[in-house]
Structures are given as structure tokens and as C-alpha cells.
Design the sequence.
């Protein structure tokens, strides 16, 4: 029984790591506009029950990657990458944006606002 619980936890952690890795790739590609216009990830769903790179499992359940991908493709987005803030727009017209950056400590106390 104990081995099974560890396997499920390790499988879930693997999915989180995959989602984080694809998140970094998607953000890097989106902020590199116009050199790059984004990223497509392959293997959307599984054809059989297995641990794989798909974002939806054999039974139709979303894996962490699918939740991550859903929030990474809005028409207008603000991303942070390597301590820089990027605004990305896929609109065909200019978009105004106001960015407020707040830094908090681990207790929720506001340290700095930019």
C-alpha cells in the first residue's frame, strides 16, 4: 500500500514539473515576439493509460499541464521572466495596460509597490 501512495505522489509531482517546464517554454516563446509567435505542445491526450507527456489522460482527466496551458494563452498577458516584466498582446490594435508590482513577505506584509 505504501509503495502505491508513493507512486501516485511521484506521478503527480512529475506532472507538476512537466507543467512548469512547458510554462517556461511557452512564456519564453511568447515574449520573444516577433522572432517567435508561440509554442505548440504535442500529445494532447493519451491513447492508452500510461504516464506520458500528454496534458489529458486516457480517461479524459486534465493533468497539471492542461490547467497551466489554459491560463498561458490569453490575448493580452503580463509575464515575468528572468526578473523582467513583459506585456504580450495578440490583438491587432494597441492595448493600454497599467502594471502594479507588489512585493510581500511570507506573512503577507507589503514590502514595496512599484
Sequence:
Amino acid at each position: 500500500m505504501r509503495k502505491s501512495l508513493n507512486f501516485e505522489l511521484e506521478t503527480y509531482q512529475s506532472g507538476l514539473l512537466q507543467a512548469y517546464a512547458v510554462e517556461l517554454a511557452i512564456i519564453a516563446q511568447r515574449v520573444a515576439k516577433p522572432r517567435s509567435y508561440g509554442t505548440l505542445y504535442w500529445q494532447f491526450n493519451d491513447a492508452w493509460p500510461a504516464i506520458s507527456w500528454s496534458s489529458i489522460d486516457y480517461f479524459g482527466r486534465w493533468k497539471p499541464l492542461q490547467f497551466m496551458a489554459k491560463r498561458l494563452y490569453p490575448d493580452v498577458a503580463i509575464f515575468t521572466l528572468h526578473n523582467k516584466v513583459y506585456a504580450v498582446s495578440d490583438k491587432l490594435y494597441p492595448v493600454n495596460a497599467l502594471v502594479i508590482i507588489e512585493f510581500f513577505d511570507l506573512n503577507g506584509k507589503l514590502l514595496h509597490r512599484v
